[in-house]
Amino acid sequence: MEHDIFFSISQTPDSNGKIPSESQMFSNYFEQLQHADKLGFGTGWIAQAHLSTETQKSNSKPVVPHWQGEVGLCTDFPQLAMESFRKTTNINIGSAVISILASGGPIAQAERIANTVQFLSMIDDKRKLNIGFSAGRFEFMARPYGITPRNIYEEMAWPALRGQIFMEASEIFLRLLRGDTVNSDDIRKTILTRDNFRSDEDWLKVQVAYFAETKSEKVPESITIPNRYNFEDISIVPKEWNREQLELVAGTHDPRAQEFVNQFLPVKVFNLSITSPEVIDDTHQRMSQYFHESGGEWQRRDMPRTSFVFINDEEELTSSQQSEAAKVEASSALEAYWNALEGTIDPGKVARATNNALIGNVEEVANQMVERFHPEDRIMAWFDFFNHDSQRVCRNMAAYMNKVVPLVEKILEEK
Questions:
Q1: Residue 292 — very low, low, confident or very high, per pLDDT cuts 50/70/90?
Q2: Which of 29, 65, 132, 331 is most buried (most C-beta within 10 Å)?
Q3: How many CB atoms lie within 10 A of CB 414?
Q4: pTM of the model
Q5: Which residue in 91, 257, 253 sits closest to 174, CA to CA?
């Protein structure tokens, strides 16, 4: 197994309702990052966010109306990535994930990434920048950049259409990174059909809206959506940068999108912490067929497995006390998270997330890891989840790498 780490830098209330300052949050991040570097984690994945989550609650259509604090403080991943490389020696840095629909869209994002890799190669020609990219989980972050319905039928087609915009943006992003000269006339066209929608009823609403707005002679069987991005020939600079130091990962669960992006470059995939084992196995099987040939043979490590880690190895507690304390910590954090996202606690989601999380003392976490993960999996461990006690987070990281990982390897060798 390989072991990565995820940093949310999420400015949320702690168990006492106190929200740390921005400077304290970044101080915690760098302390944990440097500790992760010394412990031997492979890649430090950083969550990126845009715009204030608190402010969006006053919008007419808030996406997360009950969130307290800011969902994330990393609003400029390239800058934080470079600072992270400078403060460490061995660990790779990755985004989990940048939105290619926000911050100027796919063209601006492609130039930023190329520049970042070029600067990285000037200080370290061995480590890699891992770019996880997506449409962005929280829609409000892309709205100011024009990612909103332009007419009634686009509004009826949302969010299916938003997924298509992501594919249009992905082609632009990837081809520019590849070094192509690109023109919007060459980019895929978005054509909506029944296949894009979950039900006949959803598709009918779009058809009727299109018929009414365009005054068509008949209800269409397909609807061509004008390009979101329009431009003549462009290419990005820098052009001469080491593309071997860039790895790409798509943050989408849509099989069609995962396959589409691999037409251009090798693009790995993320999974969510609540993804079922069946979907994970199906994704591995499918990606072994569609992974871009220049990336070599698809491996299980090409899909990092996100997992909450609630480990308790506190010295003053007995083994059973550590186990119970970890369960309490996990339940409290997960319920707070889902409540913040949805406004109501969904017991099903909490239970599913708990079942996929690693919870307990050292021995319990090791056994859970062996039971739930393939020996060749790459785990993205999440320790700072609703936890601002940086010293405790660092102790948990140490217990994981120094005790759990060796125990897992021992169990696997004995099998």
A1: very high
A2: 132
A3: 6
A4: 0.95
A5: 257
